[in-house]
């Protein structure tokens, strides 16, 4: 795991490169750090962000992306309603404590339905913000492309039914 030392200047933070390949010793923390590295360096490169490294299975990749999306949503002001914040905290708690996710590197297939439910809940928060607080939505989306990641992951891994995607798609593609 990589860490910034106390006293590190902001411009020097996260100055390392992270690569996961077939030979990497994969851990849940390394997958999460890798996603954070990708988001920090190229938040709009969906071709890279959506594809797990060769030694990471799809459900682990989806799980870690969902955790990262929840962390990023909670850390910003787009959660306009207190209910949304509570909902995000409940999802994070479930993701961290549910027995289906006890081994984050070998998530069972039956966990996909729960992940789909979580993706749908997060999407509905974005849906509300888009239609009721468009300026906040657009400002937030252009900073980190969270909504685009959510939609493209949902499409790639069949997590949200296409008919349920009501917010116009952002111009990013695979």
UniProtKB/TrEMBL annotation:
Zn(2+) binds at residues 128, 133. The keyword Zinc applies. The keyword Zinc applies. Keywords: Metal-binding, Zinc. InterPro entries: MOB_kinase_act_fam, MOB_kinase_act_sf. This is Uncharacterized protein. It comes from Furculomyces boomerangus.
